[in-house]
Structures are given as C-alpha cells and as structure tokens.
C-alpha cells in the first residue's frame, strides 16, 4: 500500500516538473521548480523501489540543474542515480557512466578532488566486470592532478594514487603499478612525506622484479637514490639494493634473507607477498647487470655448472634485523579517505 501511494506521489511530482518546464507568452520556464520536483519524484520512486524511474528522475533533475549552471548540484544528483544503478539494479556499466558524467561536471568547476573521487567510484564499480576500463578510469583520475600545486590538491592526489595503485595491483598490471608508484613518489616528496617516499620506491622495485623487469627495477632504484627526497640511506633503500644485488649475483640465499627482512612490514601486504614469492627465476638479469663470476656465491654440492643451490653471499650478510616500518602504501588517513557517500 505504501509503495502504491509513493508511486502516485512520484507521478504527481513528475507532472509538477513538466508544468514547471513549460513556457509560454506570459510564463518562462521555472527550472528551479522543475529541478526540485524531479528530485522529489526521484526520492519517492526510490522509496517505492521503482529504481529505473528513480534513476530517470534524478537524471532529469540533473539536467535542470545544469541548465541553471549549477554543476555541483547536477553532479550530486548523477551520483545518487549511480548509486541506485550499482546497488539496486546491479547495472555496473550504467553506474560507471553516470559517475563519469558527474566527474566531468566537477571538473568543469575545477573541483579536482571531487572529479577524481567520482572516477575512482566509477572504476571500483566496474572492477569486477570490466577491469581494463576500470584501470583506465583510475589512471584518468590520477592525471587530473598533473598540474596540481596546492597542498590540499596534493593530499587528494596522494589518496587517488593510492587507490589506483591498489586497483592496478589487484588487476595484475604490475608494470603500470610500478610506474604509477614512481609518479606517486613525486607527490609524496612535495608533501614531505619521506616515509611514504621510501616505502613506495621499495614497492616499485619489488613489483618490477615480480613483473620480470630487473632493468627497470635497477634504473628506478638508482634514480630514486639520486634524488634528495627521502629514499637514499633508508632501510627501504638498503633492502631494495640487497634484492637487486641478490639477483645480479644469482644468490638464492641472499634473496631469501632479503625477503625475510622486517623492513617489508613497511609496504602493502600484497607487495610483501610478492616479495616473499620472488625467486631468481622471477626476473631475468641482463648480462650488463650480472655480477662478475668471481663475485657470485660458490655453487653447492653438484658444482657451478649444475645451477644448484647457492651459498650465502655478501648480500646475505645484511640479513640482520632491520627496524620495522609501519603502514601500507595505499593507506588513506581517515580525514582524507575517499568515501563512497561523500557527494551523495
């Protein structure tokens, strides 16, 4: 009974909205009234569980707000429609499209944080059904901050990068994840978050190695150590070098010691698991990076030609306990976290 009553009230609100939109010789369109009536209809349809009609009413309300040049209000209405499409109709693609439209509206009024948040919501909505598009949306969200200068924008960009890194890593796109982490480092450096710089650089090295990209890992580590932004001289830098040295020397014992180091507590759990799964077969080392034979560990048992187990190298000598870091690379502070209902 209540649903029937709410449906009737919703239809009446739609009729009111249509009247407001009519114009004549003596009457101009009442867009404010139309927007209000459409939003009222959307709420009533939602209460009556008529979700497709509610979504349509929200979209009409958003159109009226756009005509009034109220982009923020229009974006809020589109995000309300997106929530219904995602949660109640399980229409992930439609929900993502609505979030994208909302993002464009936020961007039009230079609200970069809200524009990025809407794209992140779109990406999370379709992560399970359209992973490539979800990754592309996350990368778009990060790109919005390329010219950001204000500290508030930089803080929001750090959160957006963290969300993007987590999604790309879940998607198995390791090369892109490592590259994005190194972009994130530049943001952390400008915010003077040196611990985040260090753990992100270590994470990038680990992910490159897990992706079979020794050369990229080595080059990235060298460039990071050359910058005065907080990586060089840290426990994370030392561990990154030990990992690279173990691969260069083909030192299985040294690698085992490195991936057992307590410094791995500084990185995200997923990255720590990748590190502990590393073997010398994970990444082929180009000849130019291989340590000279005299500096490699002596072969055990069956001789060097057998490719058997390796004795502990100088890298393993560093396996004493390191100070344990804290936090995860994608972690957001409570006040900065991108909540799904921030804009609804």
TrEMBL record:
PANTHER family listed in its UniProt record: GAMMA-SOLUBLE NSF ATTACHMENT PROTEIN, SOLUBLE NSF ATTACHMENT PROTEIN SNAP
A GO cellular component annotated for this chain's UniProt record is: vacuolar membrane
Offer an example of a GO molecular function term for this protein.
syntaxin binding
User: Is Transmembrane a UniProt keyword of this protein?
Assistant: no
Q: Which UniProt keywords apply?
A: ER-Golgi transport, Membrane, Protein transport, Transport
Q: Some GO term, biological process aspect, for this entry: which one?
A: intracellular protein transport
- Give the record's family classification: Belongs to the SNAP family.
As for subcellular location, the record says:
Membrane
Native source organism of the sequence: Emiliania huxleyi
- Chain coiled-coil ranges: none
Please note every region of biased composition (Acidic residues): 333-344
Enumerate composition-biased segments (Low complexity). 311-320
> Membrane topology for this entry?
Peripheral membrane protein
Question: What is the name of this protein?
Answer: Gamma-soluble NSF attachment protein
Location of the region described as Disordered in the Swiss-Prot/TrEMBL record: 296-344
